[in-house]
Structures
1.
Amino acid sequence: MPITEILKENAEKYGADVALVELDPEKSFRAEITWREFNDEANRFANFIISKGVKKGDKVAILMMNSIRWLIVYFGVLKTGALAVPLNFRYVTSDIEKCLKTAEADALVFGSEFNERLEPIKDMLSVMKFAVCTDDENTPPFAERFKDAVAGKSAKDPAVPLCDADDAALYFTSGTTGAPKAILHPHLSLMTACVTEQKHHGQTKEDTFLCIPPLYHTGAIMHWFGSFLVGGKGVLLRGVKPKTIIKAVSDEKATIVWLLVPWAQDILDAVDSGEIKLEDYKLSQWRLMHIGAQPVPPSLIHRWLVTFPTHQYDTNYGLSESIGPGCVHLGVENVDHVGALGKPGFNWQAKIVKEDMTEAGNGVTGELAVKGNGVMKCYYKNPEATAEVLRDGWLLTGDMAYKDDDGFIYIVDRKKDLIITGGENIFPVEIENYLRANDKIKDAGVIGLPDDRLGEIVAAVIELKDGVTSDEAEMAAYCEGLPRYKRPRRYFFEKVPRNPTGKIEKVVLRERYCKDTLVNEQLKR
């Protein structure tokens, strides 16, 4: 059934119970909403956009920070039969414009934090069916106020006929050329995420899920879907400081928390230093900590389980093309196999394949392929890119891996040059192209360097033009034009090695700089 039916059922079963809590400790802000209010507000927003001419199959982009209203908008869009199009809140103006065009967006809902970034493309927004700013007091002239938009609208369900096969959402990733690709998922994918997540982690109505990562990321919203399925409470937290997270767990009585590696590491460091005294908080109800979105150092988990010996732990693997986490997971019962990616998730298949799609034997490295109801329909209006990764229902993940004799899958390397820093995917070519636009730069190569906290950091190898000079400070200032998470942390100045066909020899760069980085880190210790 369409995922919107779950919200409707939760409103009927648990109407007066709290569905969502929003926390912003820096602003001393806390808000909550019941399941009935959640459903009513989603219906009001749905009826508003229908009044604006939005119909089944249209696309409504969402550019907002995490909030209760984000989810109201998301489900309001789905209730109309339109497609929700979540956008990365780190996008700069050119990224936003590119994604709106790629998705063929008919409308945009945004927070006032993005006013300046949207100003240069206001003419583009003016031809849409609507542009709504969710922060009423800071609504720019080129948009409507959310409060006015939904005022007086009916809380009755619009009752648009929907089925599992209907398109539901477009999630963005980046291609190897730096151009964003829109991933098309039907309602069946969203329901698959709900069921898989709940089966893996056993959420009940009594659980409270603390959600910290951005909701535009499938790794956040799809984990929350497990609690959503059973009517469990969700807490949306802004802020990733160790004390902020621990206090939220304590105050909101959270039982499940999904973390990124750096956040988990920061919490452990704060405990070890005495900054956090665990006895000052109510944490006995916290039963599960799980991690995904990037490689997880086994040493981190061993350390975590010493500090929190009663916790269950799970590693989750997925990608936006497979509706986020869960197509492969370790399983809370397999903590003795920390270091492995895990086994196929509930209702998923996984195998390691050679170039000809035949299955590799145990212990043989090949590409990880997954299959299940959560696999995307396609890259939206991009048949060439779709054909590269979809083969008879199997999704080629681009990750190189092997399977042991017990069926556990281990990631070896990435087939493409993807860099994962703090859970965010970065494709080097986008940064390389940006660097090459600098008048002083002749060539540039970007790689990921190992980092204990973020998994990887971005490093740029820069070849300057003859007769010019530059340094790290100048390059860092230039790269402020990039989103913060894409900015290089290290700069090296030398000739960029290329092979006879003109391709950058990334293997040479990794061997040279990754080795040096590891040696330097060991010397520091």
Note: The radius of gyration is 23 Å.
2.
Amino acid sequence: MRRVDNLERLPAYCDLIVIGGGATGLGIAVDAASRGYSTVLLEARDFAQGTSSASTNLIHGGVRYLQQGNIGLVRSALRERGILAHNAPHIVSELRLLVPVYYWWEKPYYGLGLGLYDLFAGSRRFGPTRLLDAQTAVKLVPELRVQGLRGGVVFSDGQFNDARLALCLAKTAHRLGAVLLNYAPVTALLKERGRVCGVVFTDRESGEQKEVQARVVINAAGVFIDSIRRLDDPGATDLLVASRGVHLVLPPSFLSGQTGILVPRTKDGRVCFILPWEGRVLVGTTDTPVTDPTREPSASEEEIDFLLECASDYLGTPPSRAHVLSLFSGLRPLVKGSTEKTSALSRDHTIVVSRTGLVTVAGGKWTTYRHMAQAAVDKAAGLAELPPRRCITETLRLEGAENAASRWARFCVSEDVADEYERRYPGLLHPALPHTLGMVAYVIEHELPVTVEDVLSRRLRALRLDARASLEAAPVVASLMAELLGKDQEWIDEQLGQYERIAREALPGGFPAHQHARRSA
């Protein structure tokens, strides 16, 4: 999958255009292409650069929604969890979670609720829920705060790597015939006889403006769907309200085992997770209303303190800001409801069709992306009178699923490909990171990165794992990108300057003044 090839394959006319390259948009592209509809997907920045690469990295039914009584959403999400675990075994895996209890009534209360969670999952359930005494709970999570501990409830959910799943979907859609372009912002909608019939977009790499016509256009731009809707109707009122979720990444010493911790109720009424993830510990999340969504949301000091406090309440060794390897923020696209409290709004989705025929998909979450995509394509195909074709994504194995045992499984490639790249590019990228130079070269050549950030943040997740180490590795990545993509020293210097700013924002207080990426490789 190469960007230049996708540009050459770009049709003047297609059945369906998708605006947005996050979880929903990529899922729609897979669904539409798998039905045989000619499909073009356009993403303003990089695939999954926004909300879809800033999640808690759980494929789950949603314990919080169970507490809220939203049984329909929980059942649907648990069903989708099972489907995705089967279709993407190289990216989605089972994760055991412990709910520690410090009051006598918590064990039967949470045990009953999580027992229902298992029941709603039906035949697709993971491991069973169990009630534990304090000694067994500490064996599962040795780092747990033991003072006052009365035991716990352990259950299973799904864990994944969000940006890697997004790229897996992109590769699957590409294999099925879709044309996908990142850094291709839509700037206008084409209309004929009062109906939306295509888009105008800019190729940010060349600066060239292009047009593509289609029988139907789907707006799946996440928290920015209302901006696209106003290209259609300048007077359109907002469908969404945004909520910021912040996550911290800590060293593995804070959670050495393979069982995570679920804090069932924080002081703001949410649940909080302390999870083993990619050899690190992930703590999240917050829920802060945002009135003006931005493409690079930043964590507040209060949110960082909140997460550190939450982790300290449940871990024997309290983490501090000095322990944080990385932090990141994302914006949830929540469909407006009757309450002003964003934590009480549903993560369910809605589909809206404008009077001009623009189909908009609003809301949702990673776990239910496939179900959302199916509903959106059903609606769009009927609206455009496309030949009716059955959705097959419930049983469609995603790209790379057949190579689930490969050490490069997340990259959706076989052992032979891994061997070839590691032979050509031997060695590690950085001693504190799990990536080889062969992995770097592979993603540069086959996963459409345009910037150093694309590689380090989403293709490799290095920025998430260790912001300092990723900054130190940036010159090597920039140099290899320049070699493989035909860029010059000026491009390298510009990219390193941009990445230094991004990496500094991934740590509380940034980096010491002397620590920065060298401007040459």
Note: The mean pLDDT is 93.
